[in-house]
Design goal:
The chain is an alpha/beta fold and 335 residues long. The chain folds into 2 domains: 271 residues, Rossmann fold, CATH 3.40.50.12710; 38 residues, no CATH class. 34% of the residues lie in helices and 24% in strands. It contains 13 helices and 16 strands. Helix 4 crosses helix 5, helix 8 crosses helix 9 and helix 11 runs antiparallel to helix 12. The relative contact order is 0.16. The structure holds S-adenosyl-L-homocysteine. The site of S-adenosyl-L-homocysteine has 18 residues, from helix 3. S-adenosyl-L-homocysteine binds next to helix 3.
């Protein structure tokens, strides 16, 4: 089977899939995400979206949406931080796009009254202000290895009773024609078959009705090399070793994502640390620090550093903004 079929089964199988069977976040789980590290992350995202909403004339009746909300922490922090923005809550209809029934139940405790959707194409035809943090990296990818002018697909099969990776015969692929220009024999490129339709729907809503999108994830402008990885208990493991028990991800190809949101516009790809600094994380951190002492203060300083420092999440994670033609880019991001 393709890596995409393997990843989809491992992550989302209703009985055995990774996200379908557990809440994987936090110190006791397998990995920790930015909203779980500090409330500052969601607060600043909330203020960014609220400012974008004000900049576009505060449309009444808009979808405030999140793709892949995990524990619901990010949306809960967004809602708390925007409570004081006049009219924002009255106009917001909260929509959470989530595939896992287990995680929907966790989200319902944090974001009561939200509307849950299976797919982004079910979002209402309204202005859309949305965020996706570590969502696109969970979408299944395919991998192709360059062989002359053709490509061999990396596939999962069974060898000597165990799962093993193999390669198909080389074939020319029209979809990868452009990549013949920037790759050499043996190079691996990745594609994400579900991404264009999802990003395209988000872009279409924002282009038609207004709004702003923030996509935050690891990855670079172009996909080059094998970025398929498994994480279990905060450590990298073999992606074939324990299907359904480890989180499987791949880097996001932001160039492909940016192309897919047209006719909406997109900002430059910006490191997470730079984005959060521009939104004022240093001032927010200082205000929160005033009430803290000893271990709590140390943890707060470490969390701030973890979100922003170039050697931690600050550079590894990137942000891209999506906005309609004629509007200003979301705060913290440049056209
Ligand atoms: N944004 C959260 C969680 C990231 S983990 C955070 O930052 O903490 C990925 C999330 O996307 C999980 O909630 C997972 O269940 C969800 N997910 C993965 N694939 C999905 C799909 N195809 N459709 C909808 N949700 C999906």
């Amino acid at each position: 089977m393709t890596l995409a079929d393997y990843m989809a089964a491992c992550l989302l199988d209703p009985d055995h899939g990774y996200y379908a069977t557990r809440d994987p976040f936090g110190a006791a789980g397998d990995f920790i995400t930015a909203p779980e590290i500090s409330q500052m992350f969601g607060e600043l995202i909330g203020l960014c979206l609220a400012q974008a909403w004000l900049d576009q004339g505060a449309p009444a009746g808009f979808a405030l949406a999140e793709c892949g909300p995990g524990r619901g922490t990010l949306m809960a922090d967004i809602l708390r931080a925007t409570r004081a923005v006049p009219g924002f809550h009255a106009a917001a209809r909260v929509h959470l796009v989530e595939a896992s029934a287990t995680l929907r139940a966790v989200q319902a405790t944090r974001v009561p009254g939200a509307v849950w959707l299976d797919r982004v194409d079910q979002l209402p035809e309204l202005p859309l202000f949305m965020v996706a943090n570590e969502f696109f990296d969970a979408l299944p990818i395919r991998q192709f290895q360059r062989d002359g002018a053709g490509w061999r697909e990396r596939v999962v099969g069974v060898k000597d009773g165990a799962l093993a990776l193999g390669l198909t015969a080389a074939t020319p692929l029209a979809a990868l024609k452009a990549r013949l220009g920037d790759t050499r024999d043996g190079d691996i490129v990745e594609t994400c078959p579900a991404m264009p339709a999802i990003a395209g729907t988000i872009g279409a809503r924002i282009a038609a009705h207004g709004g702003a999108g923030l996509v935050i994830d690891y990855g670079d402008w172009t996909s080059l090399g094998d970025t398929f990885q498994a994480v279990q208990d905060h450590k990298e493991t073999d992606p074939l070793a324990a299907p359904g028990q480890a989180d499987l991800t791949a880097h996001v190809d932001f160039a492909a994502l940016a192309a897919a949101v047209a006719p909406a516009r997109h900002t430059r790809l910006t490191p997470q640390g730079v984005f959060l600094e521009r939104l004022g994380i240093a001032q927010r951190a200082q205000t929160l620090a005033d009430g803290l002492h000893e271990e709590a203060l140390d943890a707060h300083i470490a969390a701030h550093r973890r979100l922003t420092h170039p050697t931690q999440m600050g550079d590894h994670f990137k942000v891209i903004g999506i906005y309609p033609d004629g509007a200003t880019p979301p705060p913290g991001l440049n056209a």
